[in-house]
Amino acid sequence: MRVRSGLLAGMFALTATLSSYPTLSDSYIVVDKSENSLTYYQHNVKVKSFSVATGRTVQDTPNGVFPVVMLVKNPWYLKKNIPGGAPENPLGVRWIGLEVPGTDGSIYGIHGTNDPSSIGKHASSGCVRMKNEEVTWLYEHVHVGTLVEIVE
């Protein structure tokens, strides 16, 4: 039950950034790109792990500690004007937007997918993809301000 040192350092570094959020969360997420896994922790205890898809190249999915800044049910895929909830929507049923520097939570995120066969692979353009039922579970357990650490 050890806390990842990078996350703790990131939490302290992000305190000023997160001052506009209610509080630092007692939960956090670690995405390991080398294993294509996402683990949800609460009170420094591993609660649940999931297989995910990450970027096709190492650079596609950014490394670092990023707060959740946006939560959207049935997000629209604006690039191709596909409505939320549509079976062909590549964002699936939930969007958990991350504040990667220079973005606003609408560029990088954790989201569902209409292609569950991509899970476990390096297949995305930078986001973290999950199965729809699994991202729904995660969506119900995170809030704005939850920290997400993405590592190699």
Please provide a written account of the structure.
The longest helix has 10 residues, at 132-141. The chain has helices spanning 5-13, 132-141, and strands spanning 27-32, 37-42, 45-51, 54-55, 64-73, 94-98, 108-111, 122-124, 128-129, 147-151. It contains two helices and ten strands. It has 152 residues and is mainly beta. It has an eight-stranded mixed beta sheet with strand order 3-2-1-10-5-6-7-9. A two-stranded parallel sheet has the order 4-8. It has one domain: L,D-transpeptidase catalytic domain-like. Helices cover 12% and strands 33% of the residues. Residues 1-23 have low confidence and may be disordered.
List the helices and strands and how they pair.
Blueprint: H1 5-13, E1 27-32, E2 37-42, E3 45-51, E4 54-55, E5 64-73, E6 94-98, E7 108-111, E8 122-124, E9 128-129, H2 132-141, E10 147-151
Parallel strand pairs: 1-10, 4-8, 7-9
Antiparallel strand pairs: 1-2, 2-3, 5-6, 5-10, 6-7
Structural class: mainly beta
Gross geometry: globular
How many H/I helical runs?
A: 2
SSE series: HEEEEEEEEEHE
> Cα distance, first to last residue?
20 Å
The overall average pLDDT, rounded, is 87
Q: The CATH topology is what?
A: L,D-transpeptidase catalytic domain-like
- The CATH first-level class comes to Mainly Beta
- Count of β-strands: 10
> In percent, how much strand structure appears in the residues?
25-35%
- How many strands, which pairing sense, and closed or not: the largest β-sheet? 8 strands, mixed
CATH superfamily: L,D-transpeptidase catalytic domain-like
Question: What would you report as the Rg, rounded to the nearest angstrom?
Answer: 14 Å
Low confidence ranges? 1-23
